[in-house]
Structures are given as C-alpha cells and as structure tokens.
Amino acid sequence: MLHGLFPHLVDGYLPVWIRNPAYPLVLLHRPDDPALLREAAENLWLHGPDWDDSAAGTVKLADALEAG
Fold it and tell me: How far apart are alpha carbons 46 and 52 in whole angstroms?
C-alpha cells in the first residue's frame, strides 16, 4: 500500500505529516523486514539532520536482521 501511495520517496500522493507515521505503523506489523526498515530509514533521511541518528540506527537494525 505504501508504494502505491508514494511510489517515489520524495513525492507522493500523501502529505509528509501522514507519510511520517506510516512507516512506524507498517513496521509494527512487519518488524523483521530488513527491506522495509531500509525504506523507512531513507524516509527519515529526507527530513533533515535531526533524524540522521534514527535513520542510521534503523539501517544497523536491518543489517543485524539480515546477518541473522
């Protein structure tokens, strides 16, 4: 559903204030999906340097899940 609503990471059919909570809500249902975690991190990087630490932590979590 996320890919249908915003097929490109930068622009989409939903405003940012809806897109921001969309990834955490989807990750509640699929917390062990490394690809989704990386996608959520990319979304965080778009929102400025305040979110860079959270994005980096999300990528580390995705790497750890892939490593097993």
Answer: 9
The pLDDT tens digits for 14-52 are: 677 777 788 889 899 999 999 999 988 988 888 778 989
Taking the CB of residue 2, how many other CB atoms lie within 10 A of it?
17
Locus of tokens 């509640």:
28
Q: Which of 50, 2, 52 is closest to 30 using CA atoms?
A: 2
**Token digits for 11?**
């622009």
Please tell me what DSSP assigns to residue 27: H
Coil, strand, or helix at residue 53? helix
Return d(Cα 6, Cα 2) in angstroms, integer. Answer: 6
Confirm if 54 and 24 have CB atoms less than 8 A apart. no
Token couple for 8:
């490109």
